[in-house]
Amino acid sequence: MAPSVPARSETGDPLLLTPGPLTTSATVKQAMVHDWGSRDAGFIAINKMVLEKICELAGGQGTHVTVPVQGSGTFAVEAMITSFVPRTGKLLVLMNGAYGQRARRIAEIAGRGVAALETPEDTPPDLARLEATLKADPAITHVFAVHCETTSGILNPIREIALLVQRLGRRLLVDSMSAFGAIEIDARAVPYDALAASSNKCLEGVPGLGFVVCRREALAECKGNATTLVLDLHDQAEGFAKTGQYRFTPPIHVIAALGRAIEEHAVEGGVAGRGRRYRENARVLIDGMRAMGFRTLLGDTLQAPIIVTFHMPSDPRFRFQRFYDGLKDRGYVIYPGKLTVADSFRMGCIGRLYPHHMLGALQAVREVLDEMRVTNGGPALAAE
Ligand SMILES: *Cc1c(COP(=O)(O)O)cnc(C)c1O
Q1: Is the CB of 175 inside a 6 Å radius of any atom of ligand 1?
Q2: Ordered DSSP codes for 248-303
Q3: Over the stretch 165-212, which tens digit does the pLDDT of each residue have?
Q4: Do 132 and 158 belong to one domain?
Q5: pLDDT single digits (tens) 255-294
Q6: Into how many domains does the chain fold?
Q7: Which of 8, 116, 253, 296 is the most exposed place for a label (fewest CB within 10 A)?
Q8: Is the CB of 205 inside a 6 Å radius of any atom of ligand 1?
Q9: Which of these, 236, 210, 227, 383, lies nearest to 295 by C-alpha position?
Q10: pTM for this model (two decimals)
Q11: Pocket perturbation via mutation, ligand 1, pick of 70, 173, 178 by most ligand atoms within 8 A of CB
């Protein structure tokens, strides 16, 4: 039996232990209770602050500019690829999960040349193969890498990738969607042409705005590359430079909420403070789950403190749907796995969640296991 008072967020909602949308603070949601015209000076000031703060968080003051894209994170990724890779260019995609695969699909649909280097979902990109591939194929103009591959929760070695790509004279596009704001990626140390992220992951805003942090000199070369009107980052940036405004209706409320979320991010201590809370969340979660026998897909050195993949328990009494529903009844929403290498489920550490929420989730896991009479959450070891 689920307890009569399930866990709830500040606004009375179940807690989202998912890769997004995520639990947000009450104050972030309250920032949305006004209407602004898109030419309202108050809104324009909020938007300007948001774009500048994002650029600062990226370490790009003076060298980079944030170009927003209405829509979810994938809209920003598609805008980045199709605005930066010229129509005659070729993109090498480093793939170890669904988001790398998605990037390849975007480039294919846009008619760009594409190559891919794939490693299993629990394995970082192979830098020696990357080097050999770039040396062997001079047609490759750009490399695409995912910072934290949310499919598994793996942290890819983005700095090493960036330095290698730079050394071999190619351009890097980064999907830092699920890391930006909590795991440092500083443009002064990690050279890239563009980095995509969104309002609703580690910045803890609400969903609806993607953005691309662009190296100014590289963006200036992008005129005419885009193969869509709405996702043309060069044109969008020109619009801002000329009028300070979006070309098309902006998600005003989302941007107001993001402004508030960025203030709360600063209060927490910026990237370092946000990252510290997420690392504590992940540590509490992983230790507690391991104590019940669960096994993480990744070893601790590859695990980002963003989302954790657990092997499905092998006890025949374990039923994932019952597990999921039992946790939901107790106020915790988890996420099914999306892996090809193993049967799994995921639990997120990001959003407005604190270590005491993780302890509550562990208690709920214990109760649901007890209901199913599962004593050990471990997977079968046969395949090891
Ligand atoms: C969440 C996420 C995206 C974007 O997903 P949307 O559903 O479009 O917001 C892209 N890449 C990664 C790595 C992500 O975690």
Answers
A1: yes
A2: S---HHHHHHHHHHHHHHHHTTHHHHHHHHHHHHHHHHHHHHHHTT--BSS-TTTB
A3: 999 999 999 999 999 999 999 999 999 999 999 999 999 999 999 999
A4: yes
A5: 999 999 999 999 999 999 999 999 999 999 999 999 999 9
A6: 2
A7: 8
A8: no
A9: 383
A10: 0.97
A11: 178
